[in-house]
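quick one, 247 residues, struct below
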Amino acid sequence: MIFYFSGTGNSRWVAQELADLTGDTAVSIADIVKSGSCPEIAQGQPIGIVFPVYAWLPPEIVSDFAANLPADTGSYRWAVCTCGDEAGRAMDSLTEKLRLSSAWSLQMPNNYILSFNTDPAETVRAKVKGAKQRLPRIAQDILDKKEVWDVHAGSFAGLKSSLIGPAFNRFARSDRSFHAEASCTGCGLCQEVCPADNIELRNGKPVWLGGCLKCLACIHRCPERAIEYGKATRGKGRYYFSDKLLD
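---
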């Protein structure tokens, strides 16, 4: 069973690719949390987790989910994290919740436009191409149940994960600055794609409810580019994984 969390589609694509390559099934963690029901996991069944790195840590929804998985020390358990550049100590943090046999980090296009801009188009395609080439090797290691730790932590990893990560979760997850511009058509796609059920439409406009994960799916998926976060996202690109990137 492969469990994944994804906002802009990077980790979902990786999970689905690995599921296809290993003959496994990919299941959304957000869907499980919303339904309150997790698929049954057989004794000794391998478990994989695929997630994006948020401020050099796993998203809290991923950490909480991992902590509640069965404590079966005899099964092969692995994780893949997607990141724009480096993973910090995200995998070490996840291991505190769930023992891992193997772990990989996978570079994918940047999408956290509250602090940075999106990658140039050529960089986006290069990262996706590189990931596509690596995934069969990762899948084979998973099938062989190899113990691998291939994670690019980057510089000052411990400092970033121990200071910036917790600060992000405590102070930077406010959704008060999200708003829809006049170009919003009230299509409701932002509400539909929000993995936290944190958006509802009122009078045809989105309203954020205070439980944001900061995945930015709402901003990146808006077909009118009508959603902004204060002034931080104005003039910046938008990104969502599409199969067109594989062409």
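The chain has a mean pLDDT of 95.
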